[in-house]
Predict the 3D structure of the following.
Amino acid sequence: GQQLNQSPQSMFIQEGEDVSMNCTSSSIFNTWLWYKQEPGEGPVLLIALYKAGELTSNGRLTAQFGITRKDSFLNISASIPSDVGIYFCAGPTTSGTYKYIFGTGTRLKVLA
Amino acid sequence: DSGVTQTPKHLITATGQRVTLRCSPRSGDLSVYWYQQSLDQGLQFLIQYYNGEERAKGNILERFSAQQFPDLHSELNLSSLELGDSALYFCASSVMGLAGAGGELFFGEGSRLTVL
């Protein structure tokens, strides 16, 4: 079945640094979703991408839908302490039973 | 606020008991998804309903069941509870429910179940 590989698994960065994380798959996705989850809370949708090559921003966050439709990237610029959390990529399956596949998450810690 | 409402937020119960978790999707969303998240783990897909009908099943135990009602709210029933069932249970909703149709998925704040 379709799987999403997310990297890195975790990151420790200094406040003010930029962050990059990515999500890859062996199969095509038509939609890429990026979420942030803070401890004990539900995932919050950050950015949705619908077209290959699309670049979308949400404040300091920028995400791109890869040209091959098999990958997506999320960048966070000038990180701040409240960026701490787990970032997940996700996408709906393109064949068979309809469901959303989630990446394993990137755990981000920001050091002040 | 995602517009997805889950109750209760916290639940503590004993092994062998049964609990019901409730979810109201965002207005206009026809699909409801249930996920389980154990401590420091990823999101495990349990089951999906679309407009009242079961559409997809994931790693849902036989002790667990769910349904979606005509008003589109959904309930997840967990029975014969075991210690390992302690987890966060999330409901999510989307407009779409068909393969390849895309669409955004919105999560509720979750129900934290503790089984003692």
Observations:
- The first strand of chain A starts at residue 5 and ends at 7.
- Residues 11 and 108 of chain A are 5 Å apart (CA to CA).
- The mean pLDDT of chain A is 92.
